[in-house]
Design goal:
The structure is a single chain. This protein is of the alpha+beta class. It has two domains: 185 residues, Jelly Rolls, CATH 2.60.120; 87 residues, Arc Repressor Mutant, subunit A. Helix content is 36%, strand content 22%. A hairpin with a 2-residue loop joins strand 11 and strand 12. It is globular.
Amino acid sequence: MDHESPSQLYYSRESGQTDPSASLHRSLKRINTGESIVLREMSPDPLPFPVARENLVLGALPPETLHKLDSYLTWVQLKKQQFLRRDNDSPGFVYFPVTAVISDFSLLADGRMVEIAITGREGAVGLSPYLLGMDSAADITQVSQAGMVRRIDAATLTVLLGSNEQWQRDLKRCLSLYIKQISQRALCNMYHSVEGRLCTWLLMVQDRCGLTTMKLTQEHLSHVLGVYRPTVTNIAQDLRRDEVIDCGRGTISIRDHKKVEELACACYDAPAWATNQGERR
C-alpha cells in the first residue's frame, strides 16, 4: 500500500515545540465499564506501554490545541474482538488508537466479512459522519489487537471541530488516507493471492501494534481476508513449515520478517512511522 509519510502531512510539529508525548506521563486508574476499561488520570505512575507510542494524529497538534482537547479525551483499554460498531449503529465516539489496532469490515452477500481498512496509531476511527456528513463505509468495526486508545464523545468533537479550521483540515487529510486505503484494499482483495494478502496484513498489524507475537486466531484471519478458514489453515501451516511464522494457541509470531515482506503482495510498503524496530517486543 502506498503509505505517505506522516511528516509530509500532519504527523510532525515545528522544531522547538513541546514533546508530543509529554501528556502521556500520567498515571491511570482502571475503571471497569463492561466491554472496555476506562482509565482516569491519577498519580504520576508510569504508563503500561512505551511513552513514544503516541497517536500520531494527536501528536501532530500544536501544544495549545492538544491542551484544550486533552480534557475531553479519555484513555480506554479495548479488548480483543470487541465491537465498536455493527449493523446500522451510530458511532457515539471517535477513537485515536495508541497501541490498539482496529479493523473495519464489509459484509458480503453470502454472510462472510472482509476487512476494508485497518487503523492504528497513524489514524483515527469514526470520523466520516462528522467530517463528511455521511455514514461509515464499514458495516462492522471491531478490535483486531487489544490495546489503548484515546476516545472522545463524537458530539463533543463536532463542537470542537466547528471552531478549529486547521484541525478540520488535518483530520480530513487523515480521512483521505483512510478512503485511499479502502480503494487499495478493494483492488488487493480482487487481484492478489490469499498468501500475499495474509503476509501484508500481518505486517500492517505489526507496524501498528509494535508486537512480534500477535494475538490472532485463524478464524479471525479468515474474516479479515474474506476466505474460508481451511484456506488460512493451509497457508499458515506452509508458512510455519518454512519457519516464516510460528502459530500458537490464539497467537501468531513473525519469525522471519524479511521473508514475510518478500511474500507480501505489492500493496505493502513499510510506513516511515513504523521503521523503529526497537518498538517491537
